[in-house]
Each structure stands twice: as structure tokens, then as C-alpha cells.
Amino acid sequence: MNITAQMVKELRDKTGAGMMDAKKALVETDGDMEKAMEVLRQKGMASADKKMGRIAAEGLIAASVQDDCGAMVEVNCETDFVAKNEEFKELTSNLADFVAKSNPADVDALLSSTCPECGKVISEIIKEKIASIGEKITFRRFVRYEGITASYIHNGKIGVLIHTDKKDDELMNDICLHIASSAPEFITRDEIPQSVIDHETEVEMGKEDLLKKPEQIRAKIVEGRVNKLMAGKVLLEQPFIKNPDITVGQLIEGKLTVKAFTRFMLGEGLEKRQENFADEVMSQIKG
Within a 10 A sphere around the Cβ of 100, how many other Cβ atoms? Predict the structure, then answer.
């Protein structure tokens, strides 16, 4: 069968594969478009598996707020260049929507779920994107809250999802902005584990500027320092970012209650790539 340029273009558009790969697949399947897509998908899977050993600490954070729930996800890739790719942005956004609507138990459950729109397993969709985009892509984590939620995403790098008892769009947005900027760890003082307080007390007690002070005075100073440290970790006790004269607790008193919140920072705790993009391009050219 004669393989036309139009057939190659159609296959490329459907799969994102290279021109020569598309042509070879069509020749191999005697022009059968569906079989050619399967061949490319299988080859893509193989190339995707090879890419899974790479470091992926770039990427995007995205959120999806529905009427009765909200979700936030972090999806990683290898370079900031790909993180700005529209195809990668769409994938991340779609995954946030999927988490909100399907409520998976954990990441493994999500990856083995089937997308109702296309009938494909989520892990297969991600592998196809790896083959198309050419970088390792990993779904790292998600959070989901039932009920009234709001989110704020800062340049895809910092994300906040909150769950409240009442809906107030402006106030909820302000709380999200504050959490993104001030990075609280707890909502109230009661949530702080005693082990955290004990650790900070031990650190402060051992500081050189206090060693020569009497035990009773030293304990009083340490108590004050630890109290200030703990206040800095608590959302309701932090000075509100837009008006430091009041705390967040004073801002929302009588208006709504923050029931839960999560703050993601892109790539936190992940090993970063040491190569820069220019070096990577040169290494590929030399290879």
C-alpha cells in the first residue's frame, strides 16, 4: 500500500510521534491507522519505561474546585521547559479534575483507575505523554477535601487548598494567599505535637547566650521564645499578610472556620537535576 504524506501527518497528529517513526509504523502495518497507533503506543511505552530512571523534580501544581469538593495535585517532569508545555499543563489540569471527581484512595489507586472519557488507564495515559513529550513524568501526590473548598496556585510552583465550613470567596482567597506566603504548619496551637515543642525547648535551652543565666530565668526566656516559635507555625496566630496588625484568627472570627488546609511547594524533598538545559541539548547532539 502507498503510504501518503497525509497519512503520516494524521498519525503524527494523533500520537505526537516523530515523522519517521510514524511512517515506519504505517509501513509495518500496511497503512492500517489503528494498528499503526498501537505499534507506536507500544514503542512509546518502551521508550517511556527507559525514561523512568531520570530525575523529575520540575513540573506543576494544579487544583480543581468543584461544587462539593476540591483537589490539588503535583505532577513532576524533568525540566522547567516541559512544565511550560501546553500538553503537560493540560495533563496536570485533567488529573486534578479526575482526582476531584473520582476520589481515589491513594496514588496507586489513581494510576490504576480508568478515565471515563477515553477508556484508558491513567498510568497508560501518562506513559503516552512521556512518549509524546520525551521526558519522565510522574504523578507525585494529591490532596482532596469534601465540602466547601478554595485554592490558590502561584505560577504552578506553590499551591494551597483549603476546606472551610462556610463559603466566602474573597475571604477564602485571602486565606489561601496568606498560607501560600507564610507557610503555616497547623491551624491551631492544639494541633502541635508535644514532641515538636519539646525539641524546640531543648534547642533553645542549649543556646550559648543563655548558658550563664540562672536556671529559673533561663526557663522563663526559653518559654517565651518557644511560644513565639509555635505562634509562627499556627495559621490562626500568624499576622495576616495583608494587614499585620491583626492575626488570621481575628480576620476570620465569626465569619468562617478553616477546617483543613494543605500547602504544596513544587519539588520539595526531591533531588534536583544538576544538568542545565543547554548541557542536556549538547549531550543529545553529541550522542
Answer: 22
